[in-house]
């Protein structure tokens, strides 16, 4: 009899990894009966023909946002004190004191932080959150779904969504094994592990070490290194278009070499448009000296600000806009969902660009999978003023300490150097590719093409262990 696995989407961020890759096909070939337990407004049945069980009750306890924020800040305080490192407070967002309601929420949150900022306090705070969520109608609703469908295991596609707490608690209370996939390379040090599950799947040995370091209540035998399906499409040759076809599809000039500018969200890089402007100036200067260059601007999929428009309009002879093929199905950032078609676009943007430039984005790994260099901008813009976040803060974050050396990316530390760096990369005199491959292995793991298969093999192993207990 086939074992039934619930692949749980608490929000849309896991779709890219677990609905639009070969993850499902690989699992079915290995003999699993796969049901998508869907908490999103994207219908997997209607759009992809997948078997799904839809969660219609999206209620959470009214105090959950306050307690969740307190938990995160308490964990960051503990990390600051435990590791004697001032990087952790920089992960915090400021409190809101506008209006009586926000004042009350902020003061109550601060009181909870003061009360629970210790390792024992965090455990108590997590238990309190679980107690609150067990009292919700969503908990009862999800428990009834699980009792009706009787899955053998629930695989949660991200560890960071509060919407996943009550469904996973329901599964655990019914004795159903639960697994959380740690979604992103920067999540663990940022106190973004919202859920507690029986097992955790992580990208790499580095991420496993971090989970054990930051969460003492997790045992080593609960954490498995599986890799991530995120980068598997970059090795799928069926996505490759010829240069001529790709340029024709997106109205690019076949006589030009293109540099990709990968945009950031406004929080990460609030002055990102000025880095695009700097690149345009460098390209214009190089073109005046005999080069024939253009820029592919690929925005951050969840950035809907008009901040780039003026720069793009002023440089429309140089900049071609290739928006990610994502679909907005709601108002929230996590309701802007990828489409399978975007895999092909991103693959070919990487393949047919000379290199990529951005502010601290993980697209450095997308491009190195295609043996393409990356320039990271790391200088202040003159528009920086009080209240605007300096992008230099990003490179101090814990996940950037995984770099084996500082030449794992080409850092531009002065805008006056940008033109020279671009020219050196184009001429083959400068590259970060080999060093970045070592960084890629540290972060992504040693077998980036086998993550989906490894996840299913590990699920098989866990089911066998649980069947004997």
TrEMBL record:
It comes from the Bacteria. InterPro entries: TagF_C (IPR043148). SUPFAM superfamilies: UDP-Glycosyltransferase/glycogen phosphorylase (SSF53756). This is UDP-glycosyltransferase. It comes from Flaviramulus aquimarinus.
């Amino acid at each position: 009899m086939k074992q039934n696995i619930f692949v749980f989407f608490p929000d849309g961020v896991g779709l890219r990894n677990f609905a639009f890759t070969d993850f499902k096909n690989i699992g079915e070939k290995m003999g699993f009966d796969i049901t998508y337990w869907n908490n999103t407004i994207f219908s997997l049945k209607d759009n992809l023909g997948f078997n799904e069980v839809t969660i219609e009750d999206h209620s959470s306890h009214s105090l959950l946002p306050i307690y969740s924020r307190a938990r995160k800040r308490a964990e960051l305080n503990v990390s600051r004190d435990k590791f004697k490192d001032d990087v952790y407070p920089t992960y915090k967002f400021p409190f809101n004191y506008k209006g009586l309601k926000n004042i009350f929420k902020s003061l109550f949150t601060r009181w909870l932080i003061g009360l629970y900022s210790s390792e024992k306090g965090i455990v108590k705070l997590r238990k309190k959150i679980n107690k609150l969520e067990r009292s919700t109608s969503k908990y009862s609703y999800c428990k009834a779904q699980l009792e009706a469908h009787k899955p053998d295991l629930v695989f949660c596609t991200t560890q960071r969504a509060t919407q996943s707490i009550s469904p996973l608690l329901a599964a655990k209370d019914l004795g159903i094994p639960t697994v959380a996939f740690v979604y992103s390379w920067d999540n663990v040090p940022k106190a973004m592990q919202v859920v507690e599950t029986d097992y955790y799947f992580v990208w790499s040995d580095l991420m496993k070490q971090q989970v054990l370091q930051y969460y003492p209540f997790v045992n080593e035998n609960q954490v498995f290194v599986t890799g991530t399906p995120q980068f598997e499409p970059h090795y799928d040759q069926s996505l490759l278009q010829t240069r001529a076809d790709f340029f024709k599809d997106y109205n690019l000039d076949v006589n030009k070499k293109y540099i990709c500018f990968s945009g950031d969200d406004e929080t990460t890089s609030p002055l990102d448009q000025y880095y695009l402007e700097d690149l345009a100036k460098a390209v214009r200067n190089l073109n005046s000296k005999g080069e024939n260059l253009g820029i592919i601007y690929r925005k951050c999929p969840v950035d809907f600000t008009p901040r780039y428009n003026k720069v793009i309009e002023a440089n429309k002879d140089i900049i071609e806009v290739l928006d990610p093929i994502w679909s907005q199905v709601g108002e929230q950032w996590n309701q802007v969902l990828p489409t399978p078609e975007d895999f092909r676009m991103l693959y070919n943007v990487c393949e047919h660009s000379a290199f990529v430039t951005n502010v601290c984005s993980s697209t450095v790994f997308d491009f190195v999978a295609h043996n393409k260099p990356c320039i990271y901008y790391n200088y202040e813009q003159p528009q920086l003023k009080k209240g605007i976040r300096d992008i230099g803060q990003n490179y101090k974050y814990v996940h950037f300490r995984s770099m084996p050396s500082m030449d794992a990316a080409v850092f531009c530390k002065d805008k006056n150097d940008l033109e020279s760096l671009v020219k050196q990369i184009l001429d083959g005199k400068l590259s970060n590719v080999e060093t970045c491959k070592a960084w890629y292995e540290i972060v992504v793991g040693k077998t980036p093409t086998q993550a989906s298969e490894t996840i299913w093999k590990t699920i098989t192993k866990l089911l066998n262990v649980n069947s004997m207990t």
